[in-house]
Amino acid sequence: MDSEKAIMKTLNVALVGAGTIGRMHARHLWRAIDGARLHGVADVFADGAKACAEQNGGVRWTTDYNELLADPAVDAVVVASATDTHPDIVEAAAKAGKAIFSEKPIAKSIADGERALGAVERAGVPFQIGFQRRFDPNFARIKQAIVSGEIGKPHIAHLISRDPGPPHVGPVGLGGGIWFDMAIHDLDMARWLMDDEAVEIYTQAGVMIAPGLEKFGEVDVAVMVLRFANGGVVTIDNHTDSAYGYDQRAEVIGSKGAISIDNTYPNNAVLSNAAGLHHSVPLPYFLDRYQAVYRDEIQVFVNCLLQNTPMQVGVKDARASLALAVAAKQSHEEKRPIKLG
To answer: In this structure, what CATH number is given to the domain that contains residue 299?
Structure first.
């Protein structure tokens, strides 16, 4: 592809899924992404699809995503539907020859993940998986410190990820629960920061917040320990009901030093008085914390398409993160460390 001509093109992007994440992607595609425009919206709920389309340029809408995949004007698809639907939609989009951005996870089982990713590989279509933290300036600064050698060889990393609301007590249903909707972000971040593949994972988890959750095979707190091929160790701390806001912190300790990042706050003011030092609690919601980063990852996806360059977070990352999430869950259920190939 001639890069100058490619950059002049504007991509038509179809959105599948008009829920919370989908509506955010729609707003960005309609207003904030250079080189792309929202072309259509699909959602199984007609009211949701129609409202999302009308709020973002009055584009076409449908309850059947196959109608958008069959549209020759569509260049790319953003998959932001319920977790259980990702494999089928990604597989169909690949067969239709569309470039694909899919929210994580690619699936909740290895078999479904391989079905979808295999279709992507056979079709040879560009594919990006939605791990937005890789595009966050704070996490990127840690990565830079590791790549540049500022802290030497990374030995230990600690990742803290705590959500501010209690989990729904009931079957996971179309969602992914703690393993596939939450921990998978940290598992991907562990791979990215250590720049290596894990060889073993051990999980301790349980139900501490929402009694009854265990009846549905779910947990609401979990700690994972990963050992990497290069000898590095990563701990991951997940909690689903942080009373003080959305908690996202990280630290990496290496042979020459350490680097850490703190939470993002509404303001940096510190009030000091006889009662102590006081400052704001972290931002309350993941969309508050990562709003700009979600936009940036779609911009990178579009740039890679227009410039015909490899995707920065692709099939390998989708496959590896799924394998780690499945292994983390298996370790909890079987109460033993799980070795990874």
So the answer is: 3.40.50.720
Do 101 and 32 belong together in one domain? yes
> The whole model's pTM is what?
0.94
Q: What is the pLDDT of residues 84-128, one digit of tens each?
A: 999 999 999 999 999 999 999 999 999 999 999 999 999 999 999
Q: Which residues of the chain have pLDDT under 70?
A: 1-8, 172-174
167 with 89, same domain: the answer is no
The per-residue pLDDT for 173 is 64
Q: Can you give the residue range of the structural domain that contains 38? A: 3-131+292-313
Q: Are residues 140 and 59 in the same domain?
A: no
In angstroms, the first-to-last Cα distance of the chain is: 37
Query: Six-digit token pair at 207?
Result: 């139900």
How high is the pLDDT of residue 311?
98
Q: How many CB atoms lie within 10 A of CB 317?
A: 21
- For residue 1, the model assigns a pLDDT of 42
Give the total number of structural domains in the chain. 2
